[in-house]
Amino acid sequence: MVELQKCYFFNNLSEQDIRELERISKKVSYTKGSILFYEKEPADTLILLIEGVIKIYKTDLKNNEVIMRRFRAPSLVAEMATFEEIPFPASASFDTDGTVIIIDFQRFKEQFMDKPGVSSSIIKSLSRKIKNLEEVIDLNIVLDTTARLAKYLYEHEAILDELKNYQIAEDLHMTPETLSRTLKKFSILGLLEKGAKGYTLTNVEGLRVLFE
Question: Could you tell me the sign of the dihedral formed by the alpha carbons of 198, 202, 207, 208, in that order?
Answer without folding.
Answer: positive
